[in-house]
Amino acid sequence: MKGFKNIKRLFSLLIIAVFAVMLSSCEERPTDEPIDYLDPSTFDAYVDEVLVYFLDGDTTTINSFFIHPENYGLDEGNGEMPYPKEQTEEEAEAEFAEFKELIMRYERYEYDKLNFDQKMCYETIKYLAKYYTYELEDINYFESSYFGSYMGANVDFPVTLSSYNFRTEKDIKNYLNYIETAPEAFKVYIDYEFERTEAGYGFINSVIQSIIDHAEQMIENSDCSNGEHFLVQSFNNMVDACDFLTEEEKANYKELNKQKIAGPFTECYEMIIERMPELLNKSTNKQGLCWYENEDGDRIGTEYYQLILNHVTGYDYTLKEYVEYIDKKVSLSYGALQNAYTELQKDSVLFNSLFDYEFPDMTVEEIVEYFKEASAGLYPELTTPYHLEINYVDEAVEDHYSPAFYILSPVDGDETENVFLNRKHIYKEVEDPETGEVTEKLDSTYLFTTLAHESYPGHMYQRLYMKEQDMSTLRLILRCLGTTESWSTYSEVVAYELYFADHENEYVDDFFILNNSFSNAIYARMELGIHYQGWTLDNTYSYMSRYYNVSKNDVRQIYRQLVELPGNAMAYNFAYFKILDMRDYALEHGASLYDFHKLYLDCGNVPQQVIEEYIHDYFE
Q1: Angle at the Cα of 211 (from 526 to 537), degrees rounded to 5?
Q2: Greatest extent of the chain over all pairs of C-alpha atoms, in Å
Q3: What is the pTM of this model?
Q4: Which residues contact 285 (CB under 8 A, 6 or more apart)?
């Protein structure tokens, strides 16, 4: 039996980090069938139609990405939390057929008659079509879990609320309705987890326990009796900034929010705490995707892993080609790192100091400004003023949130740019060698590269640059994970190169860059081993022990993360090496760093393979 993706549900755009578009396989048009090409003047309208199909009625995504959605033909809805409604098989097939007609229509446009922006839209829709029309047995069970340790509705819910934009009173009402309707959606999500588990695709115990632990943190102080719940505080701050409300209206909304947090919000997480423990010890596979087989013995998990890797990296490599590429990067990175160590050890004092190197004692704002000034001339200059605000994840959710993230700003206006930092990751415990006292200290190295990744010249700069270009709205909304994350991970390399540019020892920046690169290659290789080659925990420990002095417990935690999030390490790390390859190619052909950066950025968020081909064609 073939499975169809629930298109709208799966396309839900996470405003924080990750959305990817890529290829797999789908039906190809017979080569001898004549194509009735459409007038290229209708292509822009077609792109808008695709955009509306995916976004219309998606209140939270529209609130994040648009100040005036009505200008784009979008209805922001009433704030109802989305969940899939029951359909008959006939209804589902009819919906899929309607979607397929729309998404495959791109084939009826002659590529050579489109301008550059339209060609990039064409490429994006083409890869969307190949991914979303793929048919695979049980694909929804692979693709569509609603919860998780790091991603999922349980984690996104409070993030969405704390970063919601109150531009009008309707936004506030939608926010409150989003909470009000959440229990109905969470019930469906939980029921679905039971269905997945029954079908043999349930979570391993550590993931279930993490979901439960997160839920318990969410309802701490949720009675709001002391007003300390972080979502009460964030809402109060946002409402206080609403100059279109009277003081009485602000007070009324604040009270309503308290009731919603104490009521329906808490109910969602109480359901998790009550029901999810029933799924413990019921997982049939505690290892990688390749261990999933159907009744005929076909490794459908391996087929899905191939699909997801093409999807998140933006390349059409086979699994064997991914392994060959990453194995080469492991070898090259390790050799280069060993060479750098050999050279640096000629100055033992310098070499030993690098392991505890402290970057300058600067504030977050000063670090961002430093990157702007130091990178002048390496990137196209932004012409639109912007304001960056640094926020900190609430202590109540530090354990379950990313180390840092950038909130994408609206496509149709200039509002505050927001970067969130997680204190648990930017501070490290340091033990006094004399007293044994352990204190917290700012991890300056981590903060330095994290800000390069999230703000300038990483995610925030990339977003602001794209908004200044004459790009289709579709290209500003869709975010190909490999393309965006490789740019931001590469920005960490640039941060080291800028800071150590004038250092008397040419190998100092190599020490940091190659350590990062080698680590990236190892994580990518372990993911491939787990999900493609069936590596067990022992296999993974054996592999990592070749290069690092690690305990099995350390590797067990890494193994669990890689099992839970197939494709994630490859999206960051495979694509990171690819952008370095592109840079090397451009520089070898006479380009400056400015030239390379502009070429890459001008393509927007198309799959990375399209960018690589564009850069190669440009110089050839």
Answers
A1: 25
A2: 81
A3: 0.90
A4: 200, 201, 291, 292
